[in-house]
Amino acid sequence: MPEPILPSPSQLERLRSLLGICASRSAFYQRKAREAGLDLAALAPEDFQRLPTTRKEELAQDQEEHPPYGTVLCEPLERYTRLHLTSGTKGRPLRWLDTPESWAWWKERWQGIYRAAGLGPADRLFFPFSFGPFIGFWAAFEAAQDLGTLVLAGGGERTEERIRNLLEFEATAVVCTPTYALRLAEAARLQGLDLAASPVRITLHAGEPGASLPSVRRRIEEAWGARCFDHAGATEVGPWGFGCTGGEEMHLDAEEFLAEVLEPEEDRPVEPDGRGVLAGELVLTPLGRLGSPVLRYRTGDRVRLVQRSCPCGREGPMLLGGILGRVDDMFVVRGVNVFPSAVENLVRAFPEVQEFDACVRRQAEMAELEIQVELEPGLGEEEGRALGARLEERLHRELHLRARVECVPAGSLPRYELKARRFRFEGA
């Protein structure tokens, strides 16, 4: 059986320093420890799990009660030089500040992500994102500069302009959400352009689960003729996970993040299965982001974490299948528990489907799943009905899920630049 995932001596020493900083400077964690009956200044790293976990809702409430930035900060306000917002996919966006030192830590983590994907100074990286207040790929952009690569900004451009520029500038890598990688490929195809013939050799993705889903990854790689890499991070904790050239799993940046896997919505560790796999909600403590720290932060990501060696030569914790989905995204249809990522992986396995949208409609105690799909150009109504029937049958066979599939006209479903919102929930 694999060895259990335990903090290393260096992690424990850095955790000791982090606890000391929070105990002396962070009013948020002073108050949180006091309410739990703990003396944060006297808490030994080995007893760290006695501290209650931190939830996003707590941070949001703290910012509402102590506007505009809350009481997490460990430095005077004039020491901070970066302000970013969470995406606001669910609830009001959090405001998050970084000192120069914390931002340098962010960029160092991203440089490790690039190296793991085989990117270096000879590459030309294209960034087709808006450069707004959402942290997005800001750190990725600046980290690429520090690494010595040529960075190509694609903000403020239409999709068609971005395609033209990444081809004319001979980009060798594209950094975006998996949703937008598929959107760029679709738009290029409509213009008669073959992205697989371009110099792009690597696509690197973050912002949402997707690039670790086999069918999504396969689509991206086929459309771009490039190797697809996944990455994971969050505004509150930093960039914590990355893919590599050795396999399809996701590595955890183990020296910089103390990781736990807990039962969803509970402060109770999960038990490993017979292969040493910990399946549950990922909880992280970044050890180097000292200006705006979080302790035992519940990421909301559903993972399967295991200690394992990788063909790339790395030893340490990795996520089987990357991020499997969000803990709070699970929905129930006719007694069947379903995660959106499972539905997307199955829908994307049909090459005729260009885009899709899903809606869970609830009436009284009954919920129904309706899926709208756009088909590739040239397919008629008869082909659409046949594909819808095949998709319904496969959803039932593989997910035990009854759904109604409807084919809709090309171009009628929304397209997304950052995080997609394909799943909607209606009714009481």
Structure characterization notes:
The protein has 428 residues and is of the alpha/beta class. It is built from 10 helices and 20 strands. The strands form 4 sheets. Strands 3, 4, 5, 6, 7, 8, 9, 10, 11, 12, 13 and 14 form a 12-stranded mixed β-sheet that branches. Strands 19-18-17-20 form a 4-stranded mixed β-sheet. Strand 15 (331-333) and strand 16 form a beta hairpin. Helix 4 packs across helix 5 and helix 6 (159-168) packs across helix 7 (178-190). The protein is globular and about 70 Å long. The N and C termini lie far apart (46 Å). The relative contact order is 0.12. The mean pLDDT is 90.
Give the total of beta strands. Answer: 20
**Which value, in Å, is the CA radius of gyration?**
22 Å
Q: Assembly state here?
A: single chain
The description of the largest β-sheet is:
12 strands, mixed
**Relative helix content:** 25-40%
Globally, the shape reads globular
Count of DSSP-assigned helices: 10
Question: What's the N-to-C terminus distance?
Answer: 46 Å
Poorly predicted runs are: none
Structural class: alpha/beta
* Beta strand %: 25-35%
Mean pLDDT: 90
SSE string, helices as H and strands as E = HHHEEHEHEHEHEHEEEEEEEEEEHEEHEE
